[in-house]
Amino acid sequence: AELIARRMKRVRPSPTAVISDIVRAMQQNGIDIINLGEGELDFDTPQPIKQAGIDAIERGDTKYTAVSGTEALKRAIIGKFQRENGLVFQPEEIIAGCGAKQLIFNAFLATISPGDEVIVPAPYWVSYPDMVALAEGEPRIVPCSEQSGWKLQVADLAAAITPRTRWLILNSPNNPTGAVYSREELQALAKVLLDSPQVMILSDDIYEHMRHDAEPFVTLAQIEPRLRDRTLTVNGLSKGYSMTGWRIGYAGGPAWLISAMQILQSQSTSNPSSISQAAAVEALTTPAVFHADWLRRLAARRAVVMSMIAGVPGLGAELPPGAFYVFANCRGMLGKRTPQGKTIDSDSDFAAYLVENAHVATLQGSAFGASPYIRIAYAIDDDRLHEACARIKNACLALR
Ligand code: PLP
């Protein structure tokens, strides 16, 4: 008998988790592999935030909390949205969860009925289409081109909207491209959305603080208040505060949606860890003085990757303004032969070649819905990044 549920046929394991497993297995076999595949900063969680977690344990804040987060955390989230995004929320419009991932999942599960469509601009974060599929919706992938800065074009959005469109996903700064939408670009998209009242907008702002340009950050609900009642603004501490393991994400949106997400959460995980919530309060209520230093170090690493790419015929990339990835075009590698005599036919072949021959893990563009590209995550130790780039370069130059 088939013991796995039918809905599982529509999902694949997260490719980032798969690459991490491959890397761990190779490391266990004594291979010195450098992982540029994972979306995680190497910086430590800042000390005062860690201390707030330790204090919470010692105080005895080790019990269930309200499902959608403690009052203190909700106040901190409301303060953050107001201070940094000019968004005013009431407590019933706020929810905290076990990472942005859980909140996005719950938002889809709470709102998508079979056959509903979700517009997913590509390249996309690997989990969006699978989450839509698990909720029995239809991901409607809309390709964005390298030439348009990887950003969704107004005409393409308008053409993708149907009476069954339930959501549009916006992710700026973007994983995997690092693209950042400007105020004008969001305004142009908002104009189309104002004419389509059936469409909700999920604004995934998780890389908000990871930006290298001087432009102020903008998010959809802020620049078009008329869309506020159908926008879910999602954020979290994983990237901006280097807190991936603490599992805290949060969202602000209309009370009816937040309430439905909370009901789902109450029947699955309940509250995110009480200890992590206490640490999150510290993170969101204290100026993030470490950001300047982090961004300076990240910009230097980005430069290392860009200079490697510039030195390798067949690779190419524009300078990504945000996140900590370079999404490099590898069209010039297709058709080449490896020293072992294999032909590189796709970006997956190229990424596999880099793992096997250079012992550097990246992720193929096809995982993000755009080929032929590879995503290089550069948030790792400087020396290791230099070493990884040298290895990639040598491996590329060995192709014929
Ligand atoms: N959204 C995007 C675009 C991401 O890249 C990630 C993590 O890689 C997430 C959401 C999930 O983050 P969290 O750790 O808060 O679940």
Automatic annotation (TrEMBL):
Its cofactor is pyridoxal 5'-phosphate. The keyword Transferase applies. Pfam families: Aminotran_1_2. The keyword Transferase applies. Residues 32-392 form the Aminotransferase class I/classII large domain. One of its GO terms (biological process) is amino acid metabolic process. GO terms for molecular function: pyridoxal phosphate binding; transaminase activity. Keywords: Aminotransferase, Pyridoxal phosphate, Transferase. Its EC number is 2.6.1.-. Belongs to the class-I pyridoxal-phosphate-dependent aminotransferase family. The lineage of its organism: Bacteria, Pseudomonadati, Pseudomonadota, Gammaproteobacteria, Enterobacterales. This is Aminotransferase. It is an enzyme of class 2 (transferase). PANTHER family: ASPARTATE AMINOTRANSFERASE.
